[in-house]
Inverse folding.
C-alpha cells in the first residue's frame, strides 16, 4: 500500500503557506511553510519556542492565523473552532489528555459525537472501539475506566477518539514524552498501520532518534520559521541537529578568573531520583557537582526533568533516592526550610506564582524566605519598619524599578520581577544557586542584567547551576555544560570545547561516541 | 451566543472599590427591594423611612440595634476569617450554638466566683466549645479532603439537635428544673451577667468585646507571621510550598480560630442578652447565616464586618420591632438576601471590567 | 384498622420522603452539571407559597386547580433558579454564597414570608389540596395497601421520575454529555459541548423540582401555609444527594429513609415508646457526614464521588 504513494504521484493532504501568528511580545509563527502528503508520517521538529505547537494549533482550529493560507485536499480552508477542524477530518492528540477520568474508554470515545443515537448503546460503541483498537494495535479495554489505565493506554484512547471521528490527518504532539520505550515502539507500529491506509500523520517532536526511526519526511522549524524540509531517508541526525539549533556564531564567552576556592565542591548531587507530579519517573539517578565560583550549565529541551531537578535541589520536591551535599553536609530532601538554611538559593522557572506571591508587595516578597527570623520578625510579630528599610536598600542595590516598595509585584515588568527574585535570593548569601530559565521572556536589557548578577555571584564564590534552553546563553556563561535528556545526564563537556552540533545531538537523545 | 458586552479580567484593583462596591450593593439592593414593594402595593419610601427611624434615629433604637449587631459581629468575623483564606465555612451557626452551650455551663457552674473570673471563664469556654466544634470540620477537611460546605452544614443541624436535647428532651444540667410548662434553660448566676456600659446609651460589653476581637484579628492578619503565611497561601499556594509553609494543618487552625470567635458570640448571647441557653430562640435567629451576609458585604475585612454588622443589625432590629399587621413580615430577610446578591454580584466588578464587544479587532481569516 | 408499626412507618416514610426526593433530584441534576445550589430551601418555599396562592384563587375542578398550582409553584421556583444560574454560571461568583443568598432572600424570613403576608395566604387552607388517593381501591389491602396504594399523585409521579431520570442520566447521549460537563468541563468544551447551556438548563430543572417539593408541603402535608414550613427540608435534600451518591435510585431510597426518621419520633411518642427522638433526628446528618468522609477518600471518590467540577466556576482559557 505504501509504495503507491512513494513516488511522483505524491498527493498533498494539507498545505500551510505563509502562516503568521503573533502574540503579545512574540511572533510565534513567522511565515511558516508546511506541507504533508497522503500516506506519510511527517515529523515536525524543533526546539521549544520554535513554533511547532502554535502551528499545530492553527491547523486544528484553536488559533486563527494573522496571515497565511491553509489548503486541504487542494481546497482552501479556514477553521472557526476546533470542532470545524475535527469535522474536516483533522484530529489532534494533545500532550495533556482531554479525558473524563471517571468515564469508560467507550464513553470517552463517543462523547460529543452528534451522530450517535439518543439512547446510548454502550455495547455497540464498545464493539466499534474494540474493532478499531484491534485494527490499529491500540490494545485497550473499552469498558475500563480512564483512571484505571496507564498513561500509555490513555494515550491510545485519545488516538481512538480521533479515529472514531474518521480523522484523515492525525497530529500527535510529543506523543512519546509519557511513554516507555516499549510503548513508544508499539505506537510507531500503530502510526505505520494508519498511514498504510491512506491517512496522514504529523508527528511533533524534539527527539532526533524517533524522528529518524518513524518519519518519512521532516520539517524543521527554528525561531518561528521553516528552515528545511527533507526526506528522512536522505538525512542524518547530525544534519537535523544542525538545522534545529542553527549555525550562528557563538557569542564571545565571558572570560572569568578562576575563584581561589575553585577546588571546593559546594554542591554534590549523588544518585538522585525523583518522580514528577503525575507519578512518572522524572529523574534517574542523577549525579553532578558544582564547585565554588563555578557556573555549571544544564542544557536540554524543557520537559526532560530540569524542573524536577531544580525543585529537588531547592527542597520543594522529595528525592526518592540519592543524596544532596552542600559543602559536604547532607541536606534532607523535600524540606525547603532546611535547604534554605543550608545555603541553597532557588530561582524557579515560574517566577510570578511560585517564586513570588504576585499580589503581595515588593517588600513582602523580599522577606518571603526570611520572615520567620530576626530582624524581620520578633516573637511572631512582623517588624514592618525593618522590612520596609530592608526593601528600600534592596531596591536600590539591585536597581529595581518600582513606584514604591508597597507595589504588588505582579504589576512590575518581567525584568524587574526577576530583579526582586534575585535580590531576595542573593541577599541570603547562599552557597549554591539553582537558576531555572532565568532569562526566559525578558527583554535584552533585563537579560543582560540577570547575566551580570549571576556572574557577579559566581565571582564571589557562589556555585551556580544554570538551567536554560538557550544554548547560546549556556555556552557563553558556563564553565561546564551538562546535557539532560529523559531525566539523565547524557553529556558533560567543558564549555570552551563544546560545539553546538554535538550538544544538539545530545539534546535530541543521540549519544554518539566521540561527541566531545 | 454573542453578547453586547464582555467581561475582561482586571489587572489592578483600585482601592476605591473596597468601599464603593459595598455601598453600591446596598443601594442596588434597596432599589430592587423598592421595586418588589411597589409591585406588591406597598410604599417603599414610607417603609424604608420606618425602618431607618426604628433602627437608627434614637438612642433607644441604637441600643436595640447594638443588641442585634453584637452576635452578627461575631459570626461576621467568623465567616470573614475563613472565607478570606479560601475556606467556605458555613458552620458559624453551629459554632455559635456550641459557644453558648459552653458559656452557659460556665455561667451556671461558676457561681460563687468573682464577676471577672466568671466572665473570663465564659469567654474561654465559649472559645473552646466553638473552636473545638469547628476544628472537627477542619480536621476532616485536612485529613480526608471532605467538602467543608456540607460538613459544616450538617454540623449546624447536629448542634441544633444538641440544643434541643439539652433543653427539651433531657433533664440536663442546662435545663431549668423549675420550668414545667415550657422547658427552658437554667439562668446563669447574677454575677455572671455581662456588664452593659451606660454612656448616654447602653452599650453591651459583648459589642465592645467584638470590636476588640476584630482588632486582634486585624492585627493577626496584617502584622503577624501567621497572618502573613495565611495570605501567601491564599495568594499563591505554589509560592507557599516554595518557601516551605505547611498548608495542610493550617486549615484546622483557621477553622478553630473562626469557631472560637463564633463561640465568643454565643457566650455574649448568654452573658449579655438572654442569660439562659435559649434553644428555641437561638435556632430561630439565624445568626450564623446572617453573619455570612455581613462578611460578604464587608468584603471579609474585620473592621468592615463590625460596621456592617451594625447596619444589618439595625435592619434586623427594625424588622422585629415593626412586626405587626401593618408591616409586611419577611421584608427583612428579603432585603438581606438582596444585599447579599448585590454584594456577590458586585464582587464580580472587582475581578472584571465591562467592555463593549467589538472593541478589539477579531482576527478574520480569508 | 389496626396497622402494625411497620406498616405505618413505611407509609409515612414514603409520604414524608416524597418532597425530599423531588428537591434532592432537582439538586442532583444541578450538581451533575457542576453547579452547587444551596438555595433549595428558599426555592421550595417560593414554590410552596405561590402554589398556595394559586390554589386559593383559581377556580375549576379539583384536578385542574391542583395541576396548575403545582405548575405555578414549579415555575416560580424555576425562575429563582434561573437567577442562581446567572450568578453561578455567567458571573461566576462563589456558588455557596450565591445559594445562601437565595435561601435568605426567599426563605422563611424572606420573600416567601413576604408574599404570604402580602397576599394573605396563611389565612385559610388551600381550597384544593393534593389529596391522598385510593388507587384501584386497594388502599385497605393487607400490608401493601396503605404503603403503596394510599399515596398522593406526586408520589406516583416521583416513581415514574426515578426511572426516567435514571435512563436519562446513564443511558442517553445527552445524559452522558451532562455528566461530562460535571466531571470535566474542559474536556466537554473541547468536545464541542456547550457547558453554559447544560449548566443553565439543569440548574433551572433543579429549581422546578424543588418547587414541586415545596408545593407538596403547602398543598398536602399541612394544606395551610405556614412561614418556613419546609423546616429545613431543602438542606436535608442537599445532604440526600450525597447520601444517594448522585444516583436517582439511591436518592429515592435515601429520601424514604430520611422520611422515616422524620416521622419516627412522632410515631413512637404517640405510642408511648420513649426512644430519644433527638438521636433519630441527628442520624441522617451524622450518616451524611460519614458518607461524605468515605466518598472523599481516593478509593470511593473515583467510583462513587461527587462530580469533579462541582462548585467550581468554569472559565474557558483565552484563545
Amino acid at each position: 500500500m505504501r509504495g503507491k504513494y512513494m513516488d511522483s504521484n505524491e498527493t498533498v493532504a494539507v498545505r500551510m503557506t505563509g502562516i503568521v501568528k503573533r502574540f503579545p511580545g512574540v511572533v510565534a509563527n513567522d511565515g511558516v511553510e508546511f506541507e504533508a502528503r497522503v500516506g506519510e508520517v511527517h515529523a515536525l521538529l524543533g526546539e521549544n519556542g520554535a513554533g511547532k505547537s502554535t502551528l499545530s494549533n492553527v491547523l486544528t482550529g484553536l488559533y486563527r492565523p494573522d496571515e497565511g493560507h491553509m489548503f486541504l485536499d487542494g481546497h482552501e480552508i479556514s477553521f472557526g473552532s476546533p470542532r470545524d477542524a475535527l469535522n474536516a477530518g483533522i484530529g489532534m492528540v494533545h500532550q495533556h489528555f482531554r479525558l473524563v477520568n471517571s468515564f469508560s474508554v467507550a464513553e470517552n470515545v463517543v462523547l460529543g459525537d452528534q451522530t450517535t443515537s439518543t439512547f446510548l448503546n454502550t455495547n455497540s460503541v464498545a464493539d466499534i472501539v474494540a474493532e478499531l483498537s484491534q485494527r490499529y494495535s491500540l490494545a485497550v479495554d473499552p469498558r475500563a475506566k480512564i483512571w484505571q489505565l496507564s498513561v500509555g493506554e490513555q494515550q491510545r484512547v485519545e488516538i481512538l477518539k480521533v479515529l472514531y471521528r474518521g480523522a484523515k490527518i492525525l497530529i500527535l504532539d510529543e506523543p512519546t514524552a509519557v511513554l516507555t520505550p516499549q510503548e513508544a515502539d508499539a505506537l510507531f507500529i500503530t502510526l505505520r498501520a494508519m498511514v498504510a491506509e491512506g491517512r496522514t500523520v504529523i508527528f511533533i517532536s524534539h527527539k532526533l532518534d524517533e524522528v529518524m526511526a518513524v518519519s518519512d519526511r521532516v520539517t524543521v522549524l527554528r525561531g518561528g520559521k521553516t528552515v528545511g524540509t527533507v526526506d528522512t531517508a536522505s538525512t542524518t541526525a547530525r544534519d537535523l541537529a544542525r538545522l534545529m539549533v542553527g549555525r550562528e556564531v557563538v557569542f564571545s564567552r565571558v572570560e572569568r578568573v578562576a575563584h581561589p576556592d575553585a577546588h571546593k565542591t559546594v554542591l554534590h548531587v549523588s544518585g538522585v531520583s525523583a518522580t514528577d507530579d503525575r507519578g512518572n519517573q522524572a529523574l534517574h539517578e542523577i549525579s553532578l557537582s558544582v564547585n565554588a565560583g563555578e557556573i555549571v550549565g544544564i542544557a536540554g529541551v524543557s520537559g526532560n526533568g530540569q524542573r524536577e531537578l531544580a525543585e529537588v535541589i531547592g527542597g520543594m520536591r522529595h528525592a526518592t533516592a540519592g543524596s544532596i551535599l552542600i559543602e559536604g553536609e547532607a541536606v534532607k530532601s523535600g524540606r525547603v526550610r532546611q535547604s534554605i538554611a543550608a545555603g541553597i538559593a532557588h530561582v524557579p522557572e515560574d517566577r510570578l506564582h511560585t517564586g513570588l506571591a504576585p499580589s503581595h508587595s515588593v517588600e513582602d516578597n523580599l522577606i518571603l524566605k526570611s520572615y520567620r527570623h530576626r530582624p524581620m520578625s520578633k516573637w511572631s510579630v512582623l517588624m514592618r519598619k525593618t522590612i520596609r528599610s530592608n526593601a528600600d536598600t534592596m531596591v536600590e542595590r539591585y536597581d529595581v524599578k518600582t513606584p514604591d516598595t508597597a507595589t504588588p509585584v505582579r504589576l512590575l515588568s518581567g525584568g524587574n520581577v526577576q530583579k526582586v527574585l534575585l535580590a531576595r535570593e542573593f541577599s541570603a548569601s547562599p552557597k549554591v544557586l539553582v537558576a531555572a530559565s532565568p532569562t526566559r521572556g525578558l527583554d535584552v536589557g533585563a537579560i543582560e542584567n540577570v547575566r551580570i548578577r549571576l556572574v557577579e555571584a559566581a565571582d564571589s564564590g557562589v556555585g551556580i547551576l544554570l538551567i536554560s534552553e538557550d544554548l547560546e546563553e549556556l555556552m557563553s556563561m558556563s564553565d561546564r555544560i551538562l546535557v539532560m535528556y529523559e531525566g539523565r545526564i547524557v553529556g558533560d563537556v567543558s564549555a570552551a570545547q563544546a560545539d553546538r552540533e554535538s550538544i544538539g545531538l545530545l539534546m535530541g537523545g543521540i549519544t554518539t561516541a566521540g561527541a566531545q | 451566543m454573542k453578547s453586547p458586552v464582555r467581561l475582561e479580567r482586571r489587572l489592578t484593583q483600585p482601592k476605591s472599590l473596597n468601599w464603593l462596591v459595598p455601598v453600591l450593593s446596598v443601594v442596588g439592593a434597596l432599589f430592587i427591594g423598592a421595586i418588589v414593594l411597589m409591585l406588591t402595593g406597598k410604599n417603599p419610601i414610607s417603609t424604608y423611612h420606618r425602618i431607618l427611624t426604628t433602627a437608627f434615629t434614637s438612642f433607644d433604637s441604637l441600643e436595640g440595634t447594638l443588641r442585634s449587631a453584637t452576635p452578627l459581629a461575631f459570626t461576621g468575623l467568623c465567616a470573614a476569617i475563613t472565607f478570606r483564606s479560601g475556606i467556605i465555612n458555613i458552620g458559624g451557626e453551629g459554632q455559635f450554638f456550641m459557644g453558648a452551650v459552653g458559656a452557659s455551663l460556665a455561667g451556671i457552674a461558676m457561681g460563687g466566683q468573682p464577676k471577672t473570673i466568671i466572665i473570663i471563664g465564659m469567654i474561654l469556654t465559649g472559645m473552646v466549645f466553638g473552636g473545638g466544634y469547628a476544628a472537627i470540620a477542619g480536621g476532616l477537611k485536612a485529613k480526608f479532603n471532605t467538602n467543608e460546605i456540607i460538613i459544616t452544614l450538617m454540623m449546624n443541624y447536629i448542634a441544633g439537635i444538641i440544643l434541643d436535647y439539652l433543653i427539651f428532651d433531657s433533664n440536663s444540667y442546662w435545663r431549668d428544673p423549675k420550668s414545667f410548662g415550657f422547658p427552658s434553660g437554667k439562668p446563669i448566676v447574677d454575677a455572671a451577667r455581662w456588664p452593659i456600659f451606660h454612656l448616654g446609651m447602653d452599650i453591651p460589653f459583648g459589642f465592645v468585646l467584638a470590636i476588640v476581637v476584630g482588632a486582634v484579628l486585624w492585627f493577626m492578619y496584617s502584622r503577624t507571621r501567621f497572618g502573613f503565611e495565611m495570605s501567601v497561601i491564599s495568594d499563591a499556594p505554589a509560592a507557599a510550598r516554595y518557601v516551605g509553609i505547611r498548608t495542610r494543618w493550617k486549615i484546622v487552625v483557621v477553622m478553630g480560630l473562626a469557631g472560637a470567635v463564633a463561640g465568643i458570640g454565643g457566650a455574649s448571647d448568654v452573658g449579655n442578652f438572654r442569660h439562659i441557653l435559649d434553644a428555641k430562640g437561638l435556632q430561630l435567629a439565624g445568626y450564623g447565616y446572617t453573619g455570612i451576609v455581613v462578611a460578604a458585604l464587608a468584603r471579609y475585612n474585620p473592621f468592615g464586618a463590625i460596621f456592617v454588622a451594625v447596619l444589618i443589625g439595625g435592619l434586623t432590629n427594625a424588622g422585629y420591632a415593626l412586626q405587626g399587621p401593618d408591616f409586611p413580615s419577611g421584608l427583612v430577610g428579603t432585603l438581606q438576601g438582596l444585599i447579599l446578591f448585590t454584594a456577590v454580584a458586585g464582587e464580580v466588578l472587582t475581578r472584571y471590567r465591562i467592555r463593549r464587544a467589538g472593541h478589539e479587532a477579531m482576527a478574520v481569516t480569508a | 384498622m389496626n396497622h402494625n408499626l411497620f406498616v405505618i412507618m413505611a407509609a409515612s416514610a414514603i409520604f414524608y420522603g416524597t418532597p425530599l426526593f423531588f428537591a434532592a433530584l432537582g439538586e442532583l441534576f444541578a450538581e451533575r452539571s457542576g453547579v452547587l445550589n444551596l438555595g433549595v430551601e428558599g426555592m421550595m418555599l417560593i414554590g410552596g407559597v405561590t402554589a398556595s396562592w394559586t390554589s386559593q384563587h383559581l377556580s375549576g375542578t379539583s384536578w385542574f386547580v391542583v395541576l396548575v398550582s403545582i405548575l405555578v409553584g414549579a415555575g416560580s421556583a424555576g425562575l429563582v433558579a434561573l437567577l442562581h444560574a446567572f450568578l453561578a454560571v455567567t458571573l461566576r461568583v462563589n456558588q455557596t454564597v450565591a445559594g445562601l443568598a437565595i435561601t435568605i432572600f426567599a426563605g422563611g424570613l424572606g420573600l416567601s414570608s413576604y408574599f404570604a403576608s402580602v397576599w394573605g395566604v396563611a389565612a385559610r387552607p388551600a381550597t384544593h389540596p393534593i389529596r391522598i388517593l385510593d388507587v384501584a381501591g386497594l388502599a385497605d389491602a393487607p400490608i401493601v395497601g396503605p404503603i403503596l396504594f394510599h399515596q398522593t399523585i406526586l408520589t406516583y409521579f416521583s416513581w415514574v421520575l426515578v426511572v426516567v431520570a435514571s435512563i436519562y442520566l446513564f443511558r442517553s447521549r445527552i445524559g452522558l454529555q451532562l455528566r461530562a460537563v460535571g466531571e470535566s468541563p474542559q474536556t466537554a468544551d473541547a468536545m464541542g459541548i456547550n457547558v453554559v447551556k447544560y449548566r443553565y438548563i439543569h440548574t433551572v430543572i433543579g429549581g422546578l423540582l424543588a418547587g414541586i417539593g415545596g408545593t407538596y408541603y403547602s398543598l398536602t402535608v399541612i394544606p395551610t401555609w405556614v412561614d418556613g414550613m419546609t423546616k429545613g427540608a431543602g438542606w436535608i435534600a442537599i445532604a440526600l444527594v450525597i447520601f444517594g451518591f448522585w444516583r436517582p435510585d439511591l436518592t429515592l431510597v435515601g429520601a424514604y429513609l430520611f422520611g422515616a426518621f422524620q416521622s419516627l419520633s412522632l410515631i413512637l411518642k404517640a405510642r408511648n415508646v420513649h426512644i430519644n427522638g433527638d438521636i433519630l433526628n441527628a442520624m441522617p446528618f451524622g450518616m451524611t457526614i460519614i458518607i461524605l468522609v468515605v466518598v472523599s477518600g481516593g478509593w470511593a471518590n473515583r467510583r462513587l464521588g461527587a462530580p469533579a467540577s462541582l462548585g467550581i466556576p468554569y472559565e474557558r482559557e483565552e484563545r
Q: What stands out?
A: The CA atoms of residues 163 and 249 of chain C lie 8 Å apart. The domain at 5-304 of chain C is CATH 1.10.3470 (ABC transporter involved in vitamin B12 uptake, BtuC).
